[in-house]
Amino acid sequence: MANFIARFAKLGHEGQLKINERILMHCVLEYFEDIEKVKSAHDLEHTNSPKVVAYTAYWILRRHPIQIVVEDDSSETLVFANEKFVLTMLMSNLTLGSESKPLVGDQLDIYKAFANSLYYYLKFRKLDAQTLEMMILAFRAGGLFPECNACQ
Predict the structure, then answer these.
(1) At what angle do helices 21-41 and 49-63 cross, to 10 degrees?
(2) Can you give the pTM of this predicted structure?
(3) CA 150 – CA 152 distance, rounded (Å)
(4) Closest CA to 61 of 114, 125, 122
(5) Could you read off the pLDDT of 5-15 as tens digits, one per residue?
(6) Which of 65, 141, 151, 150 minimizes the C-alpha distance to 107?
(7) CA pseudo-torsion sign 49, 54, 60, 66
(8) Which class for 127: exposed (0-12), middle (13-18), buried (19 or more C-beta within 10 A)?
């Protein structure tokens, strides 16, 4: 989160965002509470990475630990800082290991459309951790069928 905020600072938003550590603490506690419930209900020793990412994203979106600290900001750039952070987190997780693969033409268009749709979803749709987890799993499964005719 600190690195994310530092990138905003480099874009001319120095000192306009901060991490509210108390809210972040609640995100972490509620994440672990949910994960413990899932592990107990399904007799799991460990959770899979899609579940970890999904529940982390959910609680960040639910609690909004990234806070705007300026009152006179007339720009809309910072309003959805938590959603932008979660989008960055999700897209980094989804593309892990493929960072050096160049996307061009239709592939780049599909990627951008997905990222834009996901960002819209994070901002305006009702979401829960299970839906985010399913989205992550579906994205990964889609990688198994890159030339799927039914997907076009």
Answers:
(1) 140
(2) 0.90
(3) 6
(4) 122
(5) 999 888 888 89
(6) 151
(7) positive
(8) middle
